[in-house]
Design a protein that fits this description.
It is a single chain. The chain has 248 residues and is mainly β. It has an eight-stranded antiparallel β-barrel with strand order 1-3-4-5-6-7-8-9. Strand 5 and strand 6 form a beta hairpin. The longest helix is centred in the middle third of the chain and has 14 residues. It is elongated, with a radius of gyration of 22 Å.
């Protein structure tokens, strides 16, 4: 009963409806203690873009609660020297659909203000891609470039169309994440704001499916000593917010 009472109280306390969308450009990386320990393995900056939409209820002039839905990319580029002394480059590209609740602190003056969002969410993997170019690597599956090389070599020789799904199966289909954004907003017109934000997002669970095997008889795709891997995004967002006051 207390949940119903709280919901009714929140609905009656609404002061406004708010909706909008934010475009984002982020620097992405995969946080892997195992890969960082590899000698002669470098990491390139990786940039990704995305879009986040939100719909919320203004409970007061200073806070709103609602829902967020985003689609964006994450990943990492690697580089180093292969077995023949020549350079190589490898890359992981992941695409996620994020859905979650949002707490949005806000403050407004006559034509400017502050706006933020704290959103615990779940990110659903929609696509994964591997790429490797240049020299070959030592055979193994402890470090990510080795995993990429072995996986793509297997797929080149495979005649089983179901094996094409292994790039998705190598990662967890859903992971909890926390997404935080904050910055300035500028009024364009009555009820219309332009947002300029910085943001940070990180997965809260290992994104790799460490127990995945191609078949029950096959070895694990990932080495048993490979540690947890998280994705991390940081960057900028620009967007529009529409605010519609509700009758008292």
């Amino acid at each position: 009963m207390w949940r119903i009472s709280l919901l009714i109280g929140l609905m009656l306390g609404q002061r406004s409806l708010q909706m909008g969308a934010r475009l984002m450009v982020s620097q992405s990386r995969l946080l892997s203690p195992t890969d960082k320990q590899a000698t002669l393995l470098g990491f390139d900056r990786t940039y990704r873009s995305g879009l986040t939409g939100f719909f919320s209820w203004g409970l007061s002039p200073y806070v709103a609660t609602g829902l967020e839905l985003g689609y964006y990319g994450a990943g990492q580029r690697f580089y180093g020297t292969g077995v023949n002394g020549q350079p190589y480059r490898a890359e992981v590209r992941l695409h996620y659909l994020r859905a979650g609740l949002a707490l949005q602190p806000q403050y407004a003056r006559e034509w400017w203000g502050f706006w933020g969002s704290i959103s615990p969410s779940v990110a659903f993997l929609t696509q994964s891609e591997f790429e490797i170019q240049g020299d070959s690597l030592p055979v193994g599956n402890l470090f990510m470039p080795q995993v990429i090389q072995g996986t793509l070599a297997y797929l080149e020789q495979s005649t089983n169309p179901d094996d094409r799904l292994m790039l998705m199966k190598m990662y967890r289909r859903a992971v909890p994440v926390i997404s935080v954004a904050g910055g300035l907003r500028v009024r364009l017109a009555e009820g219309v704001w332009v947002l300029g934000l910085i943001f940070y997002e990180r997965s809260l669970r290992d994104i790799e499916a460490k127990n995945y095997r191609i078949s029950p008889q096959s070895p694990l795709i990932y080495h048993p000593q490979r540690r947890v891997v998280y994705y991390e995004l940081s960057g900028f967002q620009v967007g529009l917010q529409y605010e519609v006051p509700l009758p008292e």
